[in-house]
Amino acid sequence: MTSNKATLSVRAGIDSDSQYGSVTPPLYLSSNFTFEDFAKPRKYDYSRSGNPTRDMLGKALAELENGYDGVITSSGMSAVYLLSKGDLIVAPHDCYGGSYRLFSSLKDKGIFDVVFVDQGDPVALTTALALKPRLLWIETPSNPLLRVVDIAKICQQAGSDVIKVTDNTFLSPILQQPLDLGADIVVHSTTKYINGHSDVVGGAVIAKTKTLHEQLAWWANCTGITGSPFDSFITTRGLRTLGVRIRQHVENAEQVVDYLNQHPLIERVFYPGLKDHPTHDIAAKQQNGFGAMFSFCLNLDKSCLKAFVNNLEYFSLAESLGGVESLICHPATMTHAAMSLEALKKAGVGANLLRLSVGIEDVNDLIKDLDNALQQSRLESVAGAQVKALTTDSQPSSHDSPADSKALGEACL
Length: 413
Ligand SMILES: *Cc1c(COP(=O)(O)O)cnc(C)c1O
Hints:
Layout: H1 5-11, H2 52-65, E1 69-73, H3 76-82, E2 88-92, H4 97-108, E3 113-117, H5 122-129, E4 135-139, H6 151-158, E5 163-167, H7 172-175, E6 185-189, E7 203-207, H8 210-223, H9 229-239, H10 242-261, E8 266-270, H11 280-286, E9 293-298, H12 302-310, E10 316-317, E11 327-329, H13 341-347, E12 353-357, H14 363-392, H15 406-410
Parallel strand pairs: 2-3, 2-4, 4-5, 5-6, 10-11
Antiparallel strand pairs: 1-7, 6-7, 8-9, 9-12, 11-12
This protein binds pyridoxal-5'-phosphate.
């Protein structure tokens, strides 16, 4: 019987305890397991190599991603590290900052070579693939501009000699199944939507085939980056509500996007669900929904940006994403702060760009909150312009007035 993903996530490991018949599976914290007899090991011997609670989560995620099995790691970054092999890796120029840093650092150590390309540019991708990489890293949608690339097309072009990996963190298996589109491996930072409650840092690597899975599991045990049983237990608990959470996340995000998109203080909204998003068509084709992450440019100067963020009650200023609570992030000073000004510009991350992770609160409260903060920041902006006009005894510069802030808006892209 093939069941809906939401059903599968609810049922993960339910009613599987043969000892007491507990409905919810038990948590096996034990670091080691006895041998049944001399030279007669049981299924498990040591929790770094294998643990029932952790393995259950790996199996559950594999079921959701239509893979063979999953390796659960201590973080999304260790999941990325697990995959770092091969002579040459081709990765997206706008991949997650931590992945970029890890690939670059392993390259610097001489472990392998890496080239970063815009995978949405067919010429650049063809040139990179001609170098015969061992591994192709795909991440879609991208952070923070939500650029989407065509997984099926890219995987087909790469061919069967290349290990195709997709980071599916931003959408979760409810909204996108890369293995069905030709990828060999899916990577998750389970810290985000999979756990969904911002109380675990974890990762997962799901392979399509048994051979690949066994290689990954061997390496995870060898390096000791397997996740803890307790984290796996909490993550499985979060996973059960993935279906309803994602549905509410997306519904809320769409309404918040609609509200911001018509607001005069918003220069532009970057959400794949909008028809004017450059990669809307690909997203519509390969995703089962447009997700709950988006970014936008505020048509105000920096001090008003601060006022806007500080006046928000229901959007906490924090990195990370995918939790039930709404978050706001200023990429230029937070997630992307390590990048040079030039690199930021190239990546399209301007000073006025803000990113939202829309939570599952009542959407009317979220919109009221944004509306209030926008009003407050506008007042601040007008007051700032007046003070400047009085103190400099001249007309306020065009940059200080929201009515004439086209120039500022350009800083956004
Ligand atoms: C957060 C994140 C990671 C890294 O995961 P951690 O759990 O923070 O180590 C990797 N990829 C993407 C897309 C992420 O958002």
